[in-house]
Design brief:
- By secondary structure, the protein is of the alpha+beta class.
- The chain has two domains: about 70 residues, no CATH class; about 70 residues, Nucleotide Exchange Factor Grpe, Chain A, domain 2.
- It is built from two helices and seven strands, in the order ααβββββββ.
- A four-stranded mixed beta sheet has the order 3-6-2-7, with no helix packed on it.
- A hairpin with a 2-residue loop joins β4 and β5.
- α1 runs antiparallel to α2.
């Protein structure tokens, strides 16, 4: 076998590797888009469960848990938020909350779930960050939006 044949085979192997890498990247991009759309549905279920306190509440809650489990089976992990220090790489601040139960700079409440997929941030959690109580104001747990 000649040197040019060896070189040709090496170049062909590199082309195959590039093609597989491009296919993998295309698949991951498509999967990311699908997971983000499913997370929007889970957000709607979260809001329904919070808003409804009736007999159908148990059914909604079961559907919410089943949907979250399906996302977890696809490799999605949900980010822990409440009580954790605010992390701008994982959390999106949507306001502050004066709550003596949480230290200033920690997450006081979660407004939307955040998650990671395959070790990378898929979407940040939307949170309210605990603020130091103002001596002039009464602490009522309300959220001050930006």
């Amino acid at each position: 076998m000649s040197t040019s044949d060896d070189l040709r085979k090496m170049l062909e192997a590199l082309d195959v590797g590039r093609t597989l890498e491009q296919q993998d990247r295309t698949h991951r991009d498509a999967m990311r888009r699908v997971l983000l759309r499913f997370l929007e549905v889970l957000d709607a279920l979260d809001r329904l469960v919070e808003a409804r306190r009736s007999a159908s509440h148990r059914s909604l809650r079961a559907l919410q848990r089943q949907f979250a489990a399906a996302l977890e089976a696809a490799g999605v992990t949900f980010i822990e938020t409440v009580g954790c220090p605010f992390d701008p790489h994982k959390h999106e601040a949507d306001g502050t909350e004066r709550d003596p139960g949480h230290a200033p700079g920690t997450v006081a409440s979660q407004l939307r779930r955040g998650c990671e997929w395959e070790g990378q941030l898929l979407r940040p959690a939307r949170v309210a960050v605990a603020a130091a109580p103002d001596d002039k104001e009464e602490t009522d747990g309300s959220i001050d939006r930006h």
